[in-house]
Amino acid sequence: MIEIQGDRWTGKSVLLSRILDEAAGRGWRAVSGYAESRTLPNVAFGVFVDALDDLLAGCDPEQLDARTDGQTAALATVFPSVPAAEPRVFPTDPLERYRVFRAVRALLGSLGADGGLLLGLDNVHWADEASLALLSYLLRHPPQGDTVIALTHRPRQVDLGLRSVLNLAVDTGLARRLGPPELSDEAARALLPGDLSRPRCASMLTGSGRNPGLLKAFAATRSLLDSGGHVLPLDVLTESLRDFRGLSDLGRLVAEAASVVGEPCGLDVLQAVAQVTDAELSRAIDELIRQDLLRADAGAARLRFSNPLLRAAAYQSAGPGWLLGAHARAAQALSGPGDRSPVLLAGHLDRAFTTVDDADRSRTLLAAARARLWADPARAADWARRALDSGHRARLVLGAAQVLDGRLGGALRVLHPLRDDSAPDPGVAAEAVRWRALALRLLGRHPEADAELAAAPAVETSDADHGVTGLDAARHGTLLSDRLVGQLDARIGAPDGMLVTELLGALETLSGAARGRAHALIAAAAARSGAAEHAELHSVVAARLLDGLSDTAVVPRLDGVFWLAVAESALGREEAARGHHERGLRLAESRSLRALVPGFAAAVGALDLSRGDAAGAARHAACAQYAATGTDSDRLRQEAGALCAALAALDDPAPDEAVDDVPDAAPPLTPDAGAAPRPLGSLSNRETEIAVLVSGGRTNQQIARALAISHKTVETHLGRIFKKLRVSSRAEVAAVVGRAHRPGRAAGAA
C-alpha cells in the first residue's frame, strides 16, 4: 500500500499519476479509479469498478474463473463487464458481500502475479461505504503476488474506521505514507505572475501554505482572496465547485449563506441569512465540517471556510437574485444593537436593496470608506461616492481614495472645491490641500504642489475652558513635513535649510508615525546635504519610531518609510534600506495603493541591480510598470520604466553606447520626471572612484580605507556625487555606474 495524504489541491492526484506512469514504464499493469463524493447517488464499490471494469471486459470468462478460483459469479454481482450466468443481484447480505471481498482479493493477487499490478484509487475520502469496507478487508488480508494499491485521501475527511486500519498498516510496514513534496520557493513563485514583487510573492506563499491550487487561484486574481466578492476564472471556479457537488440542498444553502456573511461567521447572522431553523443549521454545519468546507473556531461559536477559494466559489455559484436578498438580511441582522463593524455592514448595503434609512446608509458607507481608505482605496472610493450627500467629508475621502488608487486627475477635480477657506470645516480644507499636493507631485507638478501647501489655510484650535485660541501645531508640523517631501522629491539641490529648521522646531508637536516620518525626512535632507552625522542621528530615531508601529499605524506615513530607506542607503546601510523599502512595497502592493507601488518597486529593483541580482531587478521593474499602467500619470509610467531601461543598458555590451538618455533607475515614492540623471562624466576623478566603490557595495569606512582618505572626506564627496548625478541614494549611484561600467571592463574605466 502507498498512502498519499494531504489537503485539497496540494498535488496528491499528480503524484499518484506519476507513480502509475512509473509502474507502467517498468512493465506493470497500472489501472486507476476515481471516487465521487459519497453523498452523490453512485455505484457501490464505485472506485473499484471504475478502476477494474474495463480490464475485466477483456478477460475470457473461463480464464477469469481460473484467476479467481471459481469466484466469477461473485464478481458478476459488482462489475458490469463480467458476464453473469444468472440475473444480477447486488450483494446486500453480509455473507454475499464477504464473497465479493474474497473474489476481488483473488483477482488482484492473480493480476499481481502476472507481471505486477498497481491499482490507483484517487480521492478515497469520497469513496462509498462498500468500497471503504473492501479496502479495509484488503489491508487486513493482502492479495498475493506483486500487487500494490496506491490511494489518495484528505485526512480530515477520511472514514475513521479506514483511518485506524491505515495507521495499523503503516505501523506494521504494510503501507508507506507519503505526502506531495512541498514546493520550493522557486517552483512556487513560478506559479505567480512575474510582475508581483518579491515581498508580495512571499505573502502569497505564506497565505497559501504553498498549496499549488491556491497559488494558481491567487495568480489568477492577483489577490489572497482575503475579502469576499472575488470573481474566479471559470476553470478555477469549476475545480473549486467539485467539493460542493455532493452537498445536500440544506448544506449548499448554508455554505452560500456563510459566503455572504463573511469571516469569522457568527451563527446568529448566518441563521438569519440562511433562513433556517436551529436544528437545520446544526445539521448543515455538521455536514459542512465533515466535508472540510467549514471549520469551527474554539467553542464552535464562529465558522470559517477552510480556505478562501472555497468561500469565493460558494459566493459566485449562488444565484444573483438570492444574493440580493441574502445581503439585505445580513444588513438587517448587523444593523441591530451591538458594536458592529461599519466595513462589514457597508459590504452588505453595497450589494442589496434594503429598507435602511438613506441617512443611516450614507453614514455607514462614509465610516466604512474612511476605515478602508488605506486598505482598499478603490472600494473606499466607491463607498464614499455613494455617500456624497453626507457633505464635504465624503468628498474629501473620495478624493483621497482616488489619489491612492492612481486616479489623480479625478482626485484633483473632486478636491478642488474643498481647498478654499469657504469650506465649512477648515480642517477638511487643510486635508484637501495635502491630498491635492500629493496628487500634483505624483503628476510631476512640484511647484504647484509646494504653492498649494504654502498657501494652506491655517487651522485654529480653541480651549473653551481657558479661552485660548491658536494654530493647530500638529497639523502645521504635518504641512511642514509635506513641503519637505516635495523638495526631496523634486531632487533639485539640497532642501531649504529654513524649512528643515522649522520642522525641527515642530517635532515636539508630532507623535507616533507622524514624528517618525518627520525624523526620516530630516535624515534624508541631511544625507543629501552631506551632513552625515545629522542624517545618522535622525535615521536611528526614525527607524525606532516607525519600526515599532503596526502596519496599520504606519501605512498612512509610507513616504516616511521610503525616505528613511533613502537616508540609510546614503549612509551605507544597504540591508536596513532594503528592509524598509521592501516593507513599504509589501504594504503598498497588498493594500492596492497603486500610486505608491512604482516608487517602492523601482527602489527595491535598483538595490537588486546594485548587488547583481538581475532577476530580482527585472521582477520589480515589471511590478512598477504594472502598477503605474493602472494610473493616469504619464510621469509615473515613465519613471516605472526607468529600471527596465537600466537593465536593457546592462544587457547591451556595446562599449561606446551613450548613456545620457537612459532614465533614472530608482525613482523615489513621488519622483520627478523632469530631472534625468547625469552621466558619470560630470564627476571628478576622485568622485568617480568613490561612485564605483559605492556601486560595489562598499561602506563609507571601507571606501576611506581603500583610498587612504578620511571618513569625513568620503561623506563630502558622496554629497557632491548625489547633487551632480541628481540622485538621492547609493542604489541610484550604483545604477548610474552600472550603465556606464560594463562587465569585463576595468573598474577605473568607468
TrEMBL record:
Stored Pfam families: AAA_16, GerE
Gene Ontology biological-process entries: regulation of DNA-templated transcription
Record keywords, A-Z: DNA-binding, Transcription, Transcription regulation
Chain ranges of the HTH luxR-type domain: 676-741
GO molecular function, one term: DNA binding
InterPro entries, per database record: AAA_16, Sig_transdc_resp-reg_C-effctor, Tscrpt_reg_LuxR_C, WH-like_DNA-bd_sf
CDD domains, per the entry: LuxR_C_like (cd06170)
Keyword Transcription on entry: yes
UniProt-annotated stretches for the region Disordered: 655-682
PROSITE patterns: HTH_LUXR_1, HTH_LUXR_2
DNA-binding keyword on record: yes
Name used for this protein in its record: Helix-turn-helix transcriptional regulator
